[in-house]
Amino acid sequence: MTRRGIQVLPVGPLPRVVERARAAERDGLDTLWFSDDPLAACDIYPTLAACARATSRIRLGAVTDVDRRHPTVTACGFASLDEMFPGRFVLGLESSGDNLDDFLLRASLIQGLLRGETLEWNGRPVRTRFVTAPTAVPIYTSALVSHDLDLLVRGSRAELDAALHERGDRSVVWFADSAEDDDSVDEVVTPA
To answer: For residue 114, which phi and psi values (nearest 5 degrees)?
Structure first.
């Protein structure tokens, strides 16, 4: 089954962003993804909470850059959202860096913290103390793909595919008109 959704930048004011979520739900979309850009848009956590409160069915997601937002902040934010509105959220992870191993390490930390695990980060144990059972937040790794399906990620497609397969990750694919214009997202397709 393919889910259909769109990705938008949640540019305020916040009531306008919430209305956009209501409209997406009325239009029958399955998922509304927000780009997590702290300097260009509304903060992602209150935006997601406000949209969840104003809608009842649509899944809400954020595509977060693991190099911009600390993994513990991302994990705690999504664990809190899942506690308030269980089963409504999805998390997309991407990286603006060029180190696949670092991306996978940060993604693993977020995944483990959302499961309630104690992990090591920079030589210290870390855990989300209030997560007592695994959350219902699915994690997707994102890759921007042009219509000819050439991956536009740092590193090769084979490296990314192998790493994701080994980890058992889901992936989300963004279809865009061209490699140069990643703001022209037409469709988001995610596995069920």
So the answer is: -70, -20
Do residues 109 and 101 lie in contact, with contact meaning Cβ atoms separated by under 8 Å? no
- pLDDT higher than 60, residue 171: no
Per residue in 114-143, pLDDT (tens digit) is 989 999 888 999 988 888 788 888 887 765
CATH number at 175 reads 3.20.20.30
Q: Among candidates 112, 118, 110, 116, which has minimal Cα distance to 130? A: 116
Residue where the block lists tokens 């992990």: 119
In tens, the pLDDT along 3-47 reads 788 888 999 899 999 999 999 999 999 999 999 988 889 999 999
Q: What angle do CA 168, 95, 122 make, to 5 degrees?
A: 80
SS3 call for 125: strand
d(CA 128, CA 16): 32
Overall number of domains in the chain: 1
Structure tokens at 166: 């080994």
- Residue 83: give the domain boundaries: 2-191
